[in-house]
Structures are given as structure tokens and as C-alpha cells.
Write a structure and sequence with these properties.
The chain starts with 20 loop residues before the first helix and ends in a 10-residue tail after the last helix. The protein is globular. The protein is 42% helix and 12% strand. The protein has a seven-stranded mixed sheet with strand order 2-8-7-6-5-3-4, sandwiched between helices. The chain is α/β, with parallel strands linked by helices. The protein folds into two domains: 254 residues, Type I PLP-dependent aspartate aminotransferase-like (Major domain) (Aspartate Aminotransferase, domain 2); 113 residues, Aspartate Aminotransferase, domain 1, CATH 3.90.1150. Helix 11 links the parallel strand 5 and strand 6. It binds pyridoxal-5'-phosphate.
Length: 520
């Protein structure tokens, strides 16, 4: 085929030309194609809506080996030139076997069902496609994001000088918070009155330590590694029987740092640990941070929903933090991604401020043109804030809080259910909405068997698609975990899932080979 052929005036007959350029141009969203955009997106929304209405199970139970060939067989060099055909294909490669978080028997991870106002926001933000790095790419978007940052810092009570930025998620928020804490600690150490004249950053960095509970999120250790401190710079503080940081141990570790010439650059308190929903004693931790000059970070990725709930007092002390992580995509019922890192003192954000001539030259800051890139570790960045904006404008903060309160109530009821059920053993009474428990295969059975039975029950349940639950490890033993974030999940659903778990565990026990009889 001649190189010029695709540009010929007359398109080749359908089915012969692999890619008609006229068609490519018409795929761009602009004034001329706006109606086509509306029809195409409406049709796709109709499909998803029908799909969600018809979903009977959270998952089909398909295996990787079962699904991989379907995805692999798609020829990416042979476009379909037809949205309907592509969506038909998508049914096979994705929609049919997706894991549906809105289903009441999806009880696994911190994934929430999403609120419709946020989905409206998602549809708008992705089509307008603002990038929130600079004012000249976003205008109103920048102001909306700033309003929401202020709204959140007001809810937390961070004070007049507070600020923050939306991020891709809690891991990124934690990373940025640790970066700010590190650079503040270094700055202070190098500018101390008694700092040696030849003091260098390279001498300070190896002495930095982060203190956090043994139940905190792994992204803290990951952040320490990415920040060049090494995972060893993280000191794990033991927790009490409710999985809350023991502040006596924190005090002892801070004192030890001091004696050994180490710098406790940050204490990370968790408000809602991922496994147990436990909330570290924030006021006591704030006192210790103040005494030792340590940056206090509160990881409220999960517990942030309490900011709008009738249980707000569970977060008392959070207002004393130097930085806070919130994941709206967990307990604010927002679609992924929606998260923010908030700081008490906006000046600390300067540690991520870099000026580029082409983008955000220094003179713009001097003219007070708001460029959000000055506060972010990303450059091009989604307008995720719009989802929260429309959520607050349509249903309001109290509406979100009600949803979160309802799942916390449900978790309390489910705890009673588990506690009274001799088939199971539950670790702690929940503060938020998770339950960590295990099936107990009889009184005198060995721990390895208990591990095997619980691991099997989780996998068998997943493969059945009837329900999805999570697993975790407590004191080296395998447990199961429910994360409740769906108010549509009833206590009956939970009881049904417990029965299914017991059934799968029971059949695993039944298949157990008889112990070999010892020869006499
Ligand atoms: C989920 C979670 C994170 C990580 O957040 P992502 O949005 O998944 O990156 C951090 N901390 C806690 C306590 C979490 O529960």
C-alpha cells in the first residue's frame, strides 16, 4: 500500500482500510464532536449501569490462568473502530470478571462503594481534563482544590497557617509528609546555635529516625527507603492489647534516641490502622512530640471519615499534628484517586517547591499567582478535588458521615456475632469498621492446621465468588479480615459469609490426611 493511501480523499471500503485518518480526527473531543462524545459516553455509562444492576456476586471467581488468555488474545494492532464493539469485547476482558466493591458481600480491603455525586465529578474532570499544576492550566480548579484543603484543615483544626495538597493516595501523602519532616529536621539540625561549623547534611541523614507503631502502614517504611534513610530508620513501637501505640514505649524510644545522638525526625501516629482500625492515643503522642521537638504526623488514611461523623471525638488530638494524611477514597466514599496531605505550617511545603522557567517561574510566586505544583511532588495532576466538591455540594459532609457511622455500627454488631460464635475467634473489638478473626478448628488443634484451614477458607471463598474477604497475620498466625465500608452490607450478609467460611474450613479439615499411626 502506498504511503499516501491513508490520506486519499475517498476512504477505502469498510473492512479494508485499517485506520481511516478522518476517523482519527473525529475521535478528538472538541466543538465539532461534542455530540458524539455525549452519545459514546452515555452508551458506556448505560452498560456499566446495567452491569451493576445485574451483579449478583462480588466476583466470578475466575483464576489468573482462566482470564489471562482472554486478555492476551486481543490484537492491539487491529483496532475495532467501533465503541460498541470495543465495549462488547471489554465485557469479556474486564467487566464480566471485575471485583465489584459495591456488592454487599465484598468485605475485603479498604475499598468503598462510591457516591454518585463523585461520579458526576469524575465525568466532568476527565472531560475538561484540567491539570492542577499551574493556574494557567486550571484556573477555577486550583481555587476549588484550595477551598477543599482549607475545609479539611478546618475540620481537623490545624489552624491559620495550615495548607496542603491533593495526592494520588495515602502512600504518596505519607511519603510527602515524611519528606517535609526530614527536611525540616535537617534544616533545624544544621542551623542550631551549637551546630558545628562544618556540619553537613550527609552527617545528619544517617542519624534520622521515624517512630511509629508496629501496626502502622507499610508505606511509612517504604517512604523511609525512598527518602534514602533506609527501612532501618523506622523504629517500631509496640502496641497494647487494643493495637494502639504504647506511649510509655514511645517515650522510652525517644529518650534512647536522645542518649544515642539520634534525631527523632517524626512520630507517625495512625488514626485507624489498616488491619484493626485502632487509633493511637493522639493527645499523649502530641505531648511527647512537643517535648522532644519531633514532627507529629497522623496517618488518618482510613480514620479520616471520623472528621464528618458523630464520632469526631475519636480523633481528638489530631489538631496538634504537624501533618495529616487523609484518604477520601476510603472513608469519604470517593472513587480512586482522592487523597490529601495537610500541614500545620504552610511554609514547610517549600521543601517541594522548585521553579521551572517554562512552568512556574519564581516571579509568579512573587505576584501571588497560585501554582499548586509548588506544593506537590507531582507535576501534571488530576483535578480529583472536584469529586469531593460535588459530593459536599450535593449531599453534604453530614451525609458522608452518616454512611461511615453506619458501617462502624455494623462492625460493632458483627463483633458481637463473632464473639458469641464458638467457631471463630476475634482479635480486638473494633473502633472503626474492620474485624480480624479466624476459624478455630477445635480446641486442641495445632497452629499450623489452623493457618492452613483459614488460608484455604479465604481462597475457596474467593474462587467461589460468593464473597470476598481479606487475610492478615497476627503474631505469626494467619487470620481473616472483614473491612466494612458498605452500609448496604447487612448483619445477615455477614452471618452468611461466616457460614460460608465455616463450610470451606470444614471441608478443608475433612480432607486432612489422617495422622500416620506410629508403629508399635
Ligand atoms: C490505605 C492506607 C494507606 C495507603 O493509602 P493508599 O491510598 O492505598 O496509597 C496508608 N495508611 C493507612 C493507615 C491506610 O489504611
Amino acid at each position: 500500500m502506498s504511503l499516501l493511501a491513508p490520506f486519499a480523499e475517498d476512504p477505502s471500503p469498510a473492512g479494508i482500510s485499517p485506520a481511516a485518518p478522518a476517523d482519527s480526527r473525529s475521535q478528538l473531543l472538541n466543538g465539532a464532536t461534542a455530540a458524539r462524545y455525549r452519545d459514546a459516553v452515555t452508551a458506556s455509562v448505560a452498560r456499566v449501569s446495567a452491569k451493576i444492576a445485574a451483579t449478583e456476586r462480588p466476583f466470578t471467581g475466575i483464576s489468573v490462568d482462566g482470564l489471562a488468555p482472554t486478555v492476551a488474545s486481543v490484537d492491539l494492532e487491529a483496532p475495532l473502530h467501533d465503541p460498541a464493539a470495543a465495549l462488547d469485547e471489554l465485557e469479556e476482558v474486564y467487566l464480566r470478571d471485575a471485583v465489584y466493591f459495591h456488592h454487599p458481600r465484598y468485605l475485603a480491603h479498604l475499598n468503598c462503594p462510591v457516591v454518585i455525586p463523585a461520579l458526576i465529578g469524575e465525568a466532568v474532570l476527565t472531560a475538561v481534563n484540567s491539570s492542577l499544576d499551574t493556574w494557567d492550566q486550571s484556573a477555577g480548579g486550583t481555587l476549588i482544590e484550595r477551598r477543599l484543603v482549607d475545609w479539611t484543615t478546618d475540620r481537623i483544626g490545624l489552624g491559620e497557617r495550615a495548607d496542603g495538597i491533593f495526592t494520588s493516595g495515602g502512600s504518596q501523602s505519607n511519603l510527602q509528609a515524611m519528606l517535609l519532616a526530614r527536611d525540616e529536621a535537617c534544616r533545624r539540625e544544621l542551623t542550631r546555635d551549637d551546630a558545628p561549623a562544618e556540619a553537613r547534611l550527609t552527617d545528619v541523614l544517617p542519624r534520622l529516625r521515624i517512630l511509629t507503631s508496629e501496626c502502622s502502614h507499610f508505606s511509612i517504611r517504604k517512604a523511609a527507603t525512598m527518602l534514602g534513610m533506609g527501612a532501618e530508620a523506622v523504629i517500631a513501637v509496640p502496641t497494647d492489647e487494643d493495637k494502639r501505640m504504647r506511649t510509655a514505649d514511645l517515650a522510652a524510644q525517644l529518650a534512647r534516641c536522645h542518649q544515642e545522638g539520634l534525631i527523632p525526625m517524626a512520630v507517625v501516629a495512625t488514626a485507624g490502622t489498616t488491619d484493626f482500625g485502632s487509633i493511637d492515643p493522639l493527645p499523649e503522642i502530641a505531648d511527647l512530640c512537643a517535648r522532644h521537638g519531633a514532627w507529629m504526623h497522623v496517618d488518618a488514611a482510613y480514620g479520616c471519615g471520623l472528621l464528618v461523623s458523630r464520632r469526631r471525638e475519636l480523633l481528638s488530638g489530631i489538631e496538634r499534628a504537624d501533618s495529616v494524611t487523609v484518604d477520601y477514597h476510603k472513608s469519604f466514599f470517593q472513587p480512586v484517586s482522592s487523597s490529601a496531605v495537610l500541614v500545620r505550617d504552610r511554609a514547610t511545603l517549600r521543601h517541594v517547591t522548585y521553579h521551572a522557567d517554562y512552568l512556574n517561574p519564581r516571579r509568579m510566586a512573587e505576584r501571588r499567582i497560585p501554582n499548586q505544583v509548588d506544593k506537590s511532588i507531582q507535576t501534571t495532576r488530576r483535578f480529583d478535588a472536584l469529586k469531593l466538591w460535588l459530593t459536599l455540594r450535593i449531599m453534604g459532609a453530614a451525609g458522608i458521615g452518616e454512611l461511615f457511622d453506619e458501617v462502624i455500627d455494623r462492625a460493632a454488631d458483627a463483633w458481637k456475632l463473632l464473639h458469641d460464635d464458638p467457631r471463630f475467634e476475634v482479635v480486638v473489638e473494633p473502633r472503626l469498621s474492620t474485624l480480624v478473626f479466624r476459624y478455630v478448628p477445635g480446641a486442641d488443634l495445632d497452629p499450623q492446621l489452623s493457618d492452613r484451614v483459614n488460608l484455604h477458607a479465604r481462597e475457596a471463598l474467593f474462587a467461589s465468588g460468593d464473597a470476598v474477604v481479606a487475610g492478615t497475620v497476627v503474631d505469626d498466625r494467619h487470620y481473616l479480615k472483614f473491612t466494612l465500608l458498605n452500609p448496604e452490607t447487612t448483619l445477615e450478609d455477614i452471618a452468611t459469609v461466616l457460614d460460608l467460611i465455616a463450610e470451606h474450613a470444614g471441608s478443608c479439615l475433612a480432607e486432612r490426611p489422617e495422622p500416620a499411626l506410629s508403629a508399635h
